[in-house]
């Protein structure tokens, strides 16, 4: 039993609307945009006040489990559980599974707050006031959503029409409105009584499951069974694949919020963005006197109202107005800021072409439970990578059939196993791993270990790994 809110963070999305930084394997919730924290980490910070919140529950997918764990560890934030969805089934099954898990852990009276992991929110006094109103309303058996006071006739958000006053600052939901065109959005703002649908919810775990059983029983039954048959794996909870797969692929809005008689909305004035386009990133960035946001390796000259970001080569932009220029390690996007909502259609085009499909799926930087690597250079029979290993972590004891490796330590201290020998490799020292030799890399130090790895051989694919011992349970 608890009298605090249990946060449920949805972190399984693979959206690509912020391409080329965001990819299917590196979605926007785990990326740093305007400062040193990812959107997921900012979400964790907002619910870190232990006087109001229990430790959060995160629901994500297999691919992102170690990203979730590592980014929480960096902030020293404990998690009540990390639920792994075996397949994507939209938000209704995810919420139902999380609610069933929370009831099992915290009791039938638990109140949960469902948060997206990829929103940008300023959590000041108005935010806390909205949370307090929602908590009281949820305790009265209402299913609460947060409606944001609109500041412009945005076409990228759904809307909520406000109904009667419920007291304590909450309103009944009259109806939900799909993302409108520009004329309809302007008309709603002119009429008043409409709010942006934030996709943030608060309700009793038992209450939302009761409503789910009424309006979407297949979802409720599948989610409950997936939790009942779940398996623990290290610090993760694997929802049962067969049971979860029987859930309908449907959003929580369609499943219950648009049907229930108990929907309530808290009109909220805090700053909020779903970070769904480069235009949104520009609006939230620190603009210079010409309205430009320049981040990373970027210089702007005679340019106005533009977003220029580079994680790699230096970008110099001259004589443009209202554009987004975004450079990742392997791709550059250039487009009009006011058309950035359409990046998804560009990504679909790239994904449908064999020569560019990989640019929408994989990112040059990949994360692993021990840290990760960035691909620097690929050639015929060789490739170069930058490895980074978290303090105290180690790679699997492994060998490769088709390649040899050269490791050069550039930061920190490495513990390297080669065959029967274990050696310490310090900065500016190197070690050679012959083809077929059993080896392992570990970071015994207190700072991030960085190595340059040069692979040579007839085949350099990631599947040429024979794991002999792996503390993360990978085959």
Describe the structure.
The chain is α+β, with helices and mostly antiparallel strands. It has 3 domains: 5-273, Alpha-Beta Complex (Spore Coat Polysaccharide Biosynthesis Protein SpsA, Chain A), CATH 3.90.550.10; 278-357, no CATH class; 365-469, Jelly Rolls, CATH 2.60.120.10. 24% of the residues lie in helices and 35% in strands. The protein contains 12 helices and 28 strands. It has a 6-stranded antiparallel beta sheet with strand order 18-19-20-27-22-25. It has a 5-stranded mixed β-barrel with strand order 6-9-7-8-12. β2, α2 and β3 form a beta-alpha-beta unit. α6 crosses α7. The longest helix has 16 residues, at 91-106. It is globular and about 75 Å long. The model has no long low-confidence stretch (mean pLDDT 92).
Q: Which CATH-level-2 architecture of the largest domain?
A: Alpha-Beta Complex
Q: What is the fold-level CATH name, i.e. the topology of the largest domain?
A: Spore Coat Polysaccharide Biosynthesis Protein SpsA, Chain A
Q: Largest beta sheet, briefly?
A: 6 strands, antiparallel
Count of helix runs:
12
Domain Mannose-6-phosphate isomerase type II C-terminal: 359-469
Keywords: GTP-binding, Nucleotide-binding, Nucleotidyltransferase, Transferase
Catalytic activity: alpha-D-mannose 1-phosphate + GTP + H(+) = GDP-alpha-D-mannose + diphosphate
InterPro entries: GMPP_N, Man1P_GuaTrfase/Man6P_Isoase, Man6P_isomerase-2_C, Mannose-6P_isomerase_type2, NTP_transferase_dom, Nucleotide-diphossugar_trans, RmlC-like_jellyroll, RmlC_Cupin_sf
């Amino acid at each position: 039993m608890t009298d605090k809110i249990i946060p449920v963070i949805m972190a399984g999305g693979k959206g690509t609307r912020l391409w080329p930084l965001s990819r299917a394997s590196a979605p926007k919730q785990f990326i740093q945009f305007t400062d040193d924290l990812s959107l997921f980490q900012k979400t964790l910070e907002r619910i870190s006040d232990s006087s109001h919140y229990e430790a959060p529950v995160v629901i994500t997918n297999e691919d992102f489990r170690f990203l979730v764990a590592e980014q929480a560890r960096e902030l020293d934030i404990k998690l009540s559980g990390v639920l792994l969805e075996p397949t994507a089934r939209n938000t209704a099954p995810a919420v139902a599974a999380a609610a069933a898990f929370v009831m099992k852990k915290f009791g039938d009276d638990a109140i949960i707050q469902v948060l997206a992991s990829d929103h940008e929110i300023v959590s000041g006094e108005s935010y806390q006031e909205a949370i307090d109103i929602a908590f009281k309303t949820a305790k009265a058996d209402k299913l609460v959503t947060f409606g944001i006071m609109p500041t412009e006739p945005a076409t990228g958000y759904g809307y909520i029409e406000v109904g009667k006053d419920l007291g304590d600052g909450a309103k009944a939901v009259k109806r939900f409105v799909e993302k409108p065109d520009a004329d309809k959005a302007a008309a709603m703002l002119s009429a008043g009584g409409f709010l942006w649908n934030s996709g943030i919810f608060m309700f009793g775990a038992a209450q939302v499951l009761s409503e789910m059983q009424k309006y979407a029983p297949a979802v409720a039954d599948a989610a409950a069974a997936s939790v009942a048959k779940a398996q623990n794996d290290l610090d993760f909870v694997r929802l049962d694949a067969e049971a979860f797969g029987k859930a309908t692929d449907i959003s929580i809005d369609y499943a219950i919020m648009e049907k229930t008689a108990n929907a309530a909305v808290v009109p909220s004035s805090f700053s909020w963005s779903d970070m769904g386009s480069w235009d949104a990133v520009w609006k939230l960035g620190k603009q210079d006197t010409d309205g430009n946001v320049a981040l990373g390796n970027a210089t702007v000259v005679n340019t106005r109202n533009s977003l220029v970001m580079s994680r790699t080569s230096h970008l110099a932009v001259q004589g443009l107005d209202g554009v987004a220029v975004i450079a990742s390690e392997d791709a550059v996007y250039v487009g009009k800021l006011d058309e950035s909502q359409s990046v998804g259609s560009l990504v679909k085009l790239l994904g449908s072409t064999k020569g560019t499909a990989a640019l929408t799926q994989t990112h040059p930087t990949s994360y692993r439970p021990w840290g990760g690597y960035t691909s620097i250079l690929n050639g015929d029979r060789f490739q170069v990578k930058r490895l980074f290993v978290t303090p105290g972590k180690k790679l699997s004891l492994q060998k490769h059939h088709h390649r040899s490796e050269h490791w050069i330590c550039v930061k920190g201290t490495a513990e390297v196993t080669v065959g029967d020998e274990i050696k310490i490799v310090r900065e500016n020292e190197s070690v050679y791993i012959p083809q077929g030799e059993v080896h392992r890399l570990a970071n015994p130090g207190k700072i991030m270990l960085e190595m340059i790895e040069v692979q040579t051989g007839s085949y350099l694919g990631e599947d040429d790994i024979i794991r002999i011992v792996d503390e993360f349970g990978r085959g």
